[in-house]
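Journal club prep — side note

Before the paper discussion, L.F. wants everyone to see what a predicted structure for a comparable chain looks like in token form. Sequence:
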Amino acid sequence: MRQLTSAPFLRTYIPALSLDCAITSVTSNEPINGLGDGDVSPDRQIVDAHHVNLRAERSGTGTGRVYTITITCAGGGGHTAAKTVKVTAPMAQH
């Protein structure tokens, strides 16, 4: 597993904004336990609001694992916004 940290990008560009952001979900285009991988679970784990562990393995028969990470931010007045970022574990190039 490799640990990724979500960057506080909104606070970098809008420092006066009071936001509470967190990783809210992680999905993958490949099954957790599928053919051609190590069949080890979990392939992804949300550690805390800003860290997620992702397994770099992918199916040997697929095109590469793509994780979709959703980050949700809440601001004053109950307003929320969510954005996604994709992280890949590509097939090895020989």
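L.F.'s comment for the group: Residues 2-90 form one domain. Keep this in mind when we get to the figures.
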